[in-house]
Design goal:
Elements: E1 3-7, E2 9-12, E3 16-22, H1 29-32, E4 33-34, E5 39-40, E6 56-61, H2 67-77, E7 84-89, H3 92-101, E8 105-107, H4 113-116, E9 122-126, E10 131-135
Parallel strand pairs: 3-6, 6-7, 7-8
Antiparallel strand pairs: 1-10, 2-8, 3-9, 4-5, 9-10
Helix pairs in contact: 2-3
């Protein structure tokens, strides 16, 4: 078993841990997710058809606008939400949505986070410390 530690910008939310789900694609809650069935729904997305519920999502960059802010809150209220979102680059709207929902979010890692973690890795997220611990 190997343990790795990575650092990014201090994030939002409380510590969580779970299984990683990775793609180098960008992320929009509005356009990429089926928020009822809990799967990636945009056919062009590399994670199309896969469940994001209870996963630590690791993706490239935020895309989209204000809808994401309320979508995280709505998704959390029905428990159809990932455990956390790790991005190379978030945007203010995504950060606002994460704060509103109390949803763990981190970004701006030292290296491309989508190339450092593999789907299936166990990830512990410590947003306030800007740290993640990966076990594989």
């Amino acid at each position: 078993m190997t343990t790795l530690e990575f650092h990014g910008h201090p994030g939002i939310g409380e510590p969580v841990s779970g299984e990683a789900l990775i793609a180098s694609d960008n992320f929009s809650a509005r356009y990429d997710l089926n928020r009822i069935d809990g799967v990636f729904s945009r056919p062009q997305h590399k994670l199309f058809g896969q469940s994001y519920v209870g996963k630590i999502l690791v993706l490239n960059a935020a895309k989209g606008g204000v809808a994401t802010a309320w979508m995280f809150h709505a998704m959390k209220s029905v428990d159809v939400i990932p455990k956390a979102l790790l991005l190379n680059f978030a945007n203010p709207i995504l950060a606002q949505g994460a704060a509103f929902a109390g949803f763990p979010l981190m970004d701006r890692f030292d290296d491309d986070i989508t190339s450092l973690i593999r789907s299936g890795d166990r990830v512990e997220v410590f947003p306030k410390e800007g740290k993640i611990v990966v076990t594989r």
